[in-house]
Design brief:
Chains: A alpha/beta, B alpha/beta, C alpha/beta
Strand content of chain C: 5-15%
Number of strands of chain C: 8
CATH class of the largest domain in chain A: Alpha Beta
Shape of chain A: globular
CATH architecture of the largest domain in chain A: 3-Layer(bba) Sandwich
Oligomer: heterotrimer
Distance between the termini of chain C: 30 Å
Number of domains of chain A: 4
Radius of gyration of chain A: 28 Å
CATH topology of the largest domain in chain A: FAD/NAD(P)-binding domain
Helix content of chain C: 25-40%
Structural class of chain A: alpha/beta
Shape of chain C: globular
CATH architecture of chain C: 3-Layer(aba) Sandwich
Largest interface: A-C, 59 and 59 residues
Order of helices and strands of chain C: HEHEHEHHEHEHEHHEEHH
CATH class of chain C: Alpha Beta
Number of strands of chain A: 20
Number of helices of chain C: 11
Helix content of chain A: 25-40%
Strand content of chain A: 15-25%
Number of helices of chain A: 18
Radius of gyration of chain C: 19 Å
CATH superfamily of the largest domain in chain A: FAD/NAD(P)-binding domain
């Protein structure tokens, strides 16, 4: 075609005009830390496994999860899910029911028999003392890294507090057994009823290259209560342990008083209820708000008929008559006696005043320091003062939850691996968290949280059946898709679509996008319309 | 085929023979009969698959033609007077885009005062819009020029106006030889656009052009007109070969070779002028005429060689520029630049006033004697002018001039002012 | 019981979604989109019209199997896309004049009909000035003849190309270069302007719709529907202009969204003169939220705030909500 000069032009010829030179700021794709991941004590990449779940790739999601936590089926049940408290969706409608999806994935893995392979052998051998969540987590991660691992535990069964601290109605034992069996299948050796008293000696004799100790805190704290007659006083940790090991359930009587305000106190009261107590009374010296127990546990306990006495201390026990004193909170938040007394009747007192660490077998190890709080001092890599000996879980200063313990296991395993390779621990960059203000919530459809089915109250009060049911696939998919993917591109194509200059290149499924800076004018529409805040504008160097 | 036929109908039949693909129509006197006739021919299926679009204005009429032409269709429309001015922006645009549209101008005066009758104010107003402007003397000319216009437009990618005097030609019944389809098809091949809106080979038409290239664009448009100066006589000759009629090419002389006085004019008035020349020649006066067929491009060299031996030149024109005088005469002067030939202008036939042989005899006589005023307004009623000027001088708000004059003529109310 | 799988993460609001089937994704989400208006154009940063034009023409191209001719009125879109020697268009495209795009399109369509090539579809487009003001005669003519053309008006509510002068679509109180925010009544007068979509409906043409660059799915559905019909079709697309509105380039889509969510720019569809669908407001917001980020309304806020004008604009929004049934 003969084209008249200047008036008629070739199509698409403006590609010669690189409008990128107009730009003062350039957009860049970022991956920020979603608040859920940030809040997870086990360091799970929750957003990543929800992303895979959204596509129905449950195995992929589970494997992503397993990269950080070997106990999804346990964690989906017992974790107090700080991730959900942090979830940005909570500010939009309700937090994503993360733990329910996690449980679904964990259960799905057991149902389908998904396995994890051990890593390529390194020839190193690591001793783990304690088969609780922290020790098993460390063993699992060390095994994935290719090390041989032998776990010693003084108890008759593996699982530690997952078994001896958490009642069945919250964590059915077949589930726990399934998760532990998978770790054993990876080639981890677990020696039960095998108390280790001299770690350095054992390391030397049996040729361990490093050790991780996580025997937990299983010594019940006690308090002196004047008891005029021989009253029945038990400690919660022993009662809960007996629930697992004794053939006959412990005899607690009709009316049970539990003394304490932690999760163990509530688990104890709820267990008492299930064992036939008509009254399960929790006495706590401070207020409800100050209770260390988690809200969910408290609510469930109250639902089940557990009675709570706040701001109350037990002064004296006379047979079945308990004298209690009312307390009041001073301006500093501390409970102070009021001199006002009451009595109540009970058959048994169960103390749930916290647990201490048995540090006796560590005191003699050179370099190992015990803090004033009676826990083991560790450095940033979780190593004690004895080279090659690491510690974690309830033994070290931290919140005492299964999830924290699992997180310690992972962290210790990675650091043990580094230490075995002679690597200097890399300084950790301060993570940038994707806050709610980064989101463009317009793009998210309204969707209420999926509620898990629960047992009816009568069965909750009388049996140890699991209270909460899991999600089915449809529900789990629905719930996973509620994830806002905070700070991480989920390929919604918004940037690609809203760019007035076609300066976003779509790389195809799973490959995300890149900017074409030849044409990007720096208008930042892409950043403004990115639902999840995964685009940032940075100033151009002039 | 010879027919006794109204001019507009003859033109309509000629257009039909040219197989236009899109015709846009908006009524305005005196061109209306052309598009009326065409609507019937289209409805009767005599122009193939031609699309006849009734539009809401002349601006739209030409705009539709622009779109059609850009999409590769042979497009036609017709207008007059106010209509041409209303589409002015599109007139320039069609030329600027190089779209070979053919448009008939039924020449008519421009208001106010509103006037439906013939003069050349309309096409003269658009003389610099980039279109080729051909003027017909007779309805036979009109038919023949339209057929050549499509060929010319499409060959050069320039739009062409064929101007014919309103009423004098458009509404006149006379004998016209309407060509055969075969003849027209032999002369006018199907439209092969040089640029076209085609999804198979997309282009961008109508770009914005800045100072860096605008002058070149304008020169290239001028260059096409320079080419037209060559092409118009060639087409005219080729047309004569096929149809046996000569439209004259750029200009058509009449008894001018040896004439001392040569009269130059556009359009139908040439017929009257030729009669007057014959009579003056009979009286022994050496006069001749040159009819300008192509006003744009202006036939500078051809006209100069036709006029260079004349002792004087008289330009008769049906339009003028306030504050200047004749329009056509300016171009004639340019053609004769460097020569000392006296050139007189006779402004005649404004708003449809008849140009009579008597008046022309008188005016030519004065010119031949070099006694004519310049410009000379033919048959101007000085009594009215003087009266109105006096009244305006006396009283600032002397009322509308046209009505005052009509009153003076006793045509309105007859009440003396 | 199977539950229909929904995409709560993105719903239908984002441009695309990796979880959707190919056929349910927007044209803009695909790598195959024609980019009818390609890179290198000279539109301002964050130009709503550039975005709107690509959105519309890309859908039209898909629906026409790339067999499309576009006609463009004079205006920003024309100027920023086709300055010699570069064109950003990848479709056959013609610009003639400011006020004649509908007529030129008529001519193109007529040519196609004459040549028996009706499969070549014709799209005409212009800004609000070119459409509802200077081109309105031609537009009305095109409508009443029911010519087979989809006409798109990109409404940025003033003559932006010439430096932000008032048009027949400039909203009340808006400051423009010819309705300055000075004197006793600041900005554009109340009670003026025209709703071109409603006037289009009065021609009883097959299809009329309003759309917004903020709602791509809705916009694409409307263009798709329009392309599936023949005859005269009109879509009026709201496209914010950072330059003319005095807004941040990154707020272009947000403002378009707020215009819809306040009720100031109702989204609806009409067939043969009757409204058939209305897009409900999802999260209703007061007009202030829409007006405040725009400097053209700055005089409504601050020290000498014109609260009466603000209230009057809120009333307009409320009337729209009532009249069009925007809140269910």
């Amino acid at each position: 075609m003969h084209k008249p000069f200047a008036i008629t032009l070739d199509v698409g010829s403006s590609l010669a005009n690189h409008t990128g030179s107009w730009r003062n700021e350039r957009p860049v794709y970022v991956d920020l830390l979603p608040p859920c991941n940030h809040a997870c004590p086990a360091g799970e990449n929750i957003q990543a496994w929800l992303y895979l779940s959204e596509e129905g790739d449950y195995e992929g999601a589970w494997r992503q999860l397993m990269a950080d936590n070997p106990f999804p089926a346990v964690e989906g049940r017992v974790c107090y899910h700080p991730c959900e408290n942090a979830c940005n969706r909570g500010q939009l409608d309700e937090a994503v029911n993360i733990h329910a999806v996690e449980r679904f994935l964990g259960d799905e893995a057991q149902k389908r028999g998904w396995k994890v392979e051990a890593g390529a052998p390194t020839g190193k051998h690591v001793l783990v003392v304690g088969a609780g969540p922290s020790g098993l987590s460390a063993a699992y991660h060390l095994r994935r890294l290719g090390h041989d691992v032998t776990v010693h535990d003084a108890g008759p069964m593996a699982g530690g507090m997952m078994r001896f601290g958490i009642p069945k109605y919250r964590l059915p034992r077949d589930i726990l057994d399934g998760e532990i069996a998978r770790i054993v299948d990876m080639g981890v050796t677990i020696e039960l009823n095998s108390k280790v008293s001299d770690i350095p000696a054992m390391m030397k004799e049996e040729g361990f290259d490093a050790a991780f100790v996580a025997v937990g805190a299983h010594l019940a704290k006690r308090t002196d209560i004047p008891a005029r007659e021989a009253s029945k006083i038990l400690d919660a940790i022993s009662v809960l342990r007996d629930m697992e090991t004794d053939e006959e359930p412990p005899l607690l009587g009709r009316r049970v008083v539990v003394y304490g305000g932690g999760n163990t106190a509530l688990d104890m009261a709820r267990t008492a209820k299930r064992l036939g107590a008509s009254e399960a009374l929790v006495v706590y010296r401070r207020t409800r708000e100050q209770m260390p127990a988690h809200d969910i546990e408290l609510e469930e306990a109250l639902d089940e008929g557990v009675i709570l006495h706040w701001l109350t201390t037990i002064k004296q026990i006379d047979g079945t008559t308990f004298t209690v004193e009312k307390m009041e909170v001073d301006e500093n938040g501390w409970p102070q006696p009021t001199g006002e007394f009451e009595t109540l009747e009970a058959d048994t007192l169960v103390l749930a005043l916290g647990q201490a660490v048995d540090t006796s077998f560590l005191k003699t190890i050179p370099g190992v320091k015990i803090t004033d709080d009676g826990v083991i001092d560790v450095d940033a890599t979780m190593m004690t003062g004895f080279p090659g000996l690491f510690a974690g879980g309830d033994m070290v200063p931290a919140e005492r939850t299964v999830t924290v313990a699992i997180g310690h296991g992972k962290k210790a395993a990675r650091n043990i691996d580094g230490w075995l390779r002679g690597e200097e621990p890399a300084p950790r960059a301060e993570p940038r968290v994707a806050g709610y203000e980064r989101l463009n919530t317009w793009y998210y459809t309204d969707a209420d949280k999926t509620v898990q089915p629960a047992l009816d109250l009568i069965r909750r009060q009388t049996t140890f059946d699991e209270i909460h049911g899991g999600l089915d696939e449809t529900n789990a998919l629905f719930e996973a898709r509620r994830c806002l993917s905070c700070g991480n591109c989920f390929e919604c194509d918004n940037c690609y679509g809203v760019c007035p200059d076609n300066a976003v290149i779509k790389l195809g499924p799973g490959k995300r996008f890149e900017f074409n800076y030849d044409f990007c004018k720096g208008c930042s529409l892409c950043a403004a319309e990115c639902p999840c805040g995964a685009i940032e504008m940075v100033p151009e160097r002039m | 085929m010879l027919k006794q036929i109204e001019g507009s109908q003859a033109v309509a039949e000629a257009i039909a023979l040219c197989r236009p693909e899109v015709i846009c129509a908006y009524p305005i006197t005196p061109q209306t009969h052309i598009v009326e006739n065409l609507s019937e021919l289209v409805r009767l299926g005599e122009i193939g698959n031609c699309q006849y679009i009734n539009v809401e204005s002349e601006f739209a009429a030409l705009s539709v033609a622009i779109g059609a032409s850009a999409a590769g269709a042979r497009a036609y429309t017709a207008t007059s007077s106010q209509g041409l001015l209303f589409m002015t922006e599109a007139v320039y645009n069609a030329a600027g885009l190089g779209l070979p549209i053919v448009m008939t101008i039924g020449n008519r005066a421009i208001g106010a005062p509103i006037n439906i009758w013939n003069d050349h104010s309309d096409s003269m107003a658009l003389r610099d819009a980039g279109w080729i402007q051909l003027h017909a003397e007779t309805n036979q000319d009109a038919v023949d020029l339209h057929i050549q216009a499509f060929r010319l437009a499409e060959q050069l990618s320039v739009p062409v106006m064929v101007c014919e005097d309103g009423f004098i030609l458009t509404h006149a019944y006379e004998r016209v030889d309407i060509p055969d389809k075969q003849q027209v098809d032999a002369f006018l091949p199907p439209f092969e656009p040089v640029q076209v809106l085609d999804p198979a080979a997309p282009v961008t038409m109508g770009a914005m052009v800045g100072p860096e290239a605008f002058a070149e664009v304008r020169y290239l448009a001028h260059h096409k007109h320079l080419q037209a100066v060559e092409v118009i006589p060639q087409l005219s000759a080729e047309f004569a070969d096929i149809f046996g009629r000569d439209t004259g090419g750029l200009i058509q002389p009449y008894r001018s070779e040896d004439a001392e006085t040569v009269i130059v004019a556009l359009g139908s008035v040439n017929g009257t002028i030729k009669d007057v020349i014959d009579e003056m020649r009979d009286d022994g006066i050496s006069v001749g005429a040159v009819k300008i067929v192509a006003f744009r491009p202006f036939p500078m060299l051809a006209l100069r060689s036709a006029l260079e031996n004349a002792k004087r030149v008289i330009v008769v024109e049906k339009a003028f520029a306030d504050g200047l005088g004749g329009i056509l005469v300016g171009s004639v002067r340019m053609a004769l630049r460097g020569l000392t030939t006296p050139i007189y202008t006779i402004i005649a036939g404004l708003g449809g006033r008849p140009i009579t042989k008597v008046s022309l005899h008188r005016a030519f006589g004065e010119a031949v004697a070099d006694e004519i005023d310049d410009p000379h307004f033919l048959d101007l009623d000085w009594a009215i002018i003087d009266h109105e000027l006096a009244r305006a001088k006396e009283k600032r708000r002397s009322g509308p001039i046209a009505e005052n004059i009509l009153r003076d003529l006793g045509l309105v109310g007859g009440k003396p002012v | 019981m199977t539950q229909r799988v929904k995409f709560y993460q993105t719903g239908t609001f984002t441009v695309g979604n990796r979880l959707l089937d190919e056929e349910n994704r927007t044209v803009q989400a695909t790598v195959e989109r024609s980019n009818s208006l390609t890179s290198g154009h000279r539109a301002c940063q964050g130009c709503g019209e550039a975005l709107g034009a690509r959105y519309v023409v890309d859908v039209a191209m898909r629906e026409a199997n790339n067999n499309l001719v576009a006609v463009n009125a004079t205006g920003c879109l024309e100027v920023f896309s086709t300055p010699y020697p570069e064109s950003s268009w990848q479709v056959p495209w013609i610009h003639s004049l400011f006020g004649n795009a509908p007529a030129v399109a008529t001519g193109v369509a007529a040519a196609m009909r004459a040549k028996g090539r009706e499969d070549t579809r014709v799209l005409a487009q212009g800004g609000d000035g070119g459409t509802v003001d200077i081109g309105f005669g031609c537009l009305s003519g095109m409508f009443e003849r029911n010519d087979d053309i989809l006409y798109i008006c990109y409404d940025n509510e003033a003559y932006m190309n010439t430096g932000v002068q008032r048009s027949g679509r400039t909203p009340p109180a808006a400051r423009t270069a010819t309705t300055p925010a000075v004197g006793p009544t600041k900005g554009n007068a109340f009670g003026q302007g025209k709703n071109a979509a409603l006037i289009a409906m009065a021609h009883f043409i097959p299809y009329v719709a309003t759309a917004s660059v903020a709602d791509l799915h809705d916009l694409e559905a409307k263009v798709t529907k329009a392309m599936g019909m023949t005859g005269a079709r009109y879509i009026h697309v709201h496209v914010p202009c950072p330059l003319g509105w005095g807004s941040k380039p990154c707020d272009t889509i947000k403002l378009a969204r707020l215009a819809v969510e306040t009720g100031l720019f109702p989204l609806f569809e009409a067939e043969h003169g009757e409204i058939t669908e209305v897009t409900q407001i999802r999260r209703k917001v007061p007009v202030e939220e829409y007006l405040r980020p725009q400097r053209r309304f700055a005089h409504l806020f601050g020290k000498s705030a014109d609260t009466d004008a603000l209230a009057a604009i809120q009333q307009m929004a409320d009337r729209n909500i009532e009249k069009f049934g925007l809140s269910g």
